[in-house]
Amino acid sequence: MEIGELEIGGLLELCKDLAIQAGKAIMDVYDSEGGFEIEYKADASPLTKADRVSHCIIVDALKEKYPRFAILSEEEKDNKTRLDNDYCFIIDPLDGTKEFIKRNGEFTVNIALAYKHKSVLGVIYVPVTGELYYAAAGRGGWLKEENGTVKKLQVSDITEHDKVRLVMSSSHPCKEMEELIEKNNFTNFVKMGSSLKGCLIAKGDAEIYYRHNPTMEWDTAAMQCIVEEAGAVFRQMDDSEMLYNRENPLNANGFYIINHIKNKL
Fold first, then answer.
1. What is the pLDDT of residues 191-229, one digit of tens each?
2. Nearest C-alpha neighbor of 167 from the set 207, 222, 126
3. Are 213 and 172 in contact (CB under 8 A)?
4. Based on C-alpha coordinates, what's the Rg of the chain?
5. 150-152 and 215-216: which strand pairing?
């Protein structure tokens, strides 16, 4: 069963609304005078009340509105029956929990829909700035700013080596990235948290993002749809396509996002 034009439009509007609702709930925790408690999951990654509240807002609504679709969320036990479903929402209720804890504002709400293993819808909301990035396959990528202004996302056309801007993780440094910077003599780069790195490329404020460290499906699904609709190239490190709703949601091969194939390293 294919998703019709009317339904994908309604889906996108719902996901945009849910991302904003979740973002506001996250900010209530972020701005709370008493601070917030931090727990640690089995993999040593942090968990806060904001992660859980955001998860409930998004997942409860999606289950009610689209019960026939599967859901894969970072904050919910993986139900492998999703593998039998062509449709799967992929959600990171709070992408950048480490940044949230640091209170640097570099965290997002990520909601995506995969259809037959491909990301066909992506929404990324930035609670601190009120920026809303969104896209659906064939509909382009868009940015709605806090003041209501809507802009079409388009990657930059910069390919000159001395002008390209590289974005990298602020919380997940790795030897491969340091070696890549040194080998290519990059001097123009910025460190940033969460899926904001992909958003920078989508709106033309950076050209290269290489990620060697492992990530999860919910870290990349929304971002991939948005950057590709903005004209970027998104591939795994072996140049193969990134697929979703897999048996193992670990993105073990790494990935890269570039504004133009000429900037492939």
1. 888 899 999 999 999 999 999 989 999 999 999 999 999
2. 207
3. yes
4. 17
5. unpaired
